[in-house]
């Protein structure tokens, strides 16, 4: 092929111009495609941290809030419950919560930042049913070994009032403890880790 008389500068200009036009066109096509992959405002709101006012919470009361589409329980445990929790280890599958999900600040005997306030995701770790809150001791339908806790009616799993699973039930692990922190003594934020902790 004879390239005599071909203006190389025009060829270079046309190649550069077409490359720029192609890149701009690709950008115009990519922006709507990529922006539709962003979560909706509703989805972002559902995963946002939840503020919980504990100032009017009574001893023994259970509050329920929603976080990330899941029920979260906040229980104000009584002194009697705290005493009872220390006596149940022999009946539990994971009393030290070694195989369960909880933030570092809740890896303790009470599975909480403050001993009296228990925060947990209210879903059974077996198949995701929501257990019922059964604070009474030794009710006729659960027997003498029941010291209060959460009972899953779907398949019969038992959890104590620290969300620890009993031995010999279908649930494999303790209830999940979500990330949470206290802004003040009476303002709890669920879904936000404590200062310096990871989610």
User: pLDDT below 50 for ≥5 consecutive residues: which ranges?
Assistant: none
The total tally of domains equals 2
Q: What spatial order of strands do you see in the largest sheet?
A: 1-9-8
Identify the CATH homologous superfamily of the largest domain: Rieske [2Fe-2S] iron-sulphur domain
- Strand residue percentage: 15-25%
CATH class categorisation of the largest domain: Mainly Beta
Describe this structure in words.
This protein has 199 residues and is of the alpha+beta class. The protein folds into two domains: 7-38; 44-190, Rieske [2Fe-2S] iron-sulphur domain (Rieske Iron-sulfur Protein, 3-layer Sandwich), CATH 2.102.10.10. It is 21% helix and 19% strand. It is built from three helices and nine strands, in the order ααβββαββββββ. It has helices at residues 8-35, 41-46, 79-85; strands spanning 50-53, 62-67, 70-76, 117-121, 132-134, 149-151, 158-159, 180-182, 187-190. The strands form three sheets. Strands 1-9-8 form a three-stranded antiparallel β-sheet, with no helix packed on it. Strands 2-3-4 form a three-stranded antiparallel β-sheet, with no helix packed on it. Strands 5-6-7 form a three-stranded antiparallel β-sheet, with no helix packed on it. A hairpin with a 2-residue loop joins β2 and β3 (70-76). The mean pLDDT is 87.
Key terms:
single chain; Rieske Iron-sulfur Protein; three-stranded antiparallel β-sheet; 9 strands
Any chance you could write out the topology, listing elements then pairs?
Elements (H helix, E strand, L loop, with lengths): L7 H28 L5 H6 L3 E4 L8 E6 L2 E7 L2 H7 L31 E5 L10 E3 L14 E3 L6 E2 L20 E3 L4 E4 L9
Antiparallel strand pairs: 1-9, 2-3, 3-4, 5-6, 6-7, 8-9
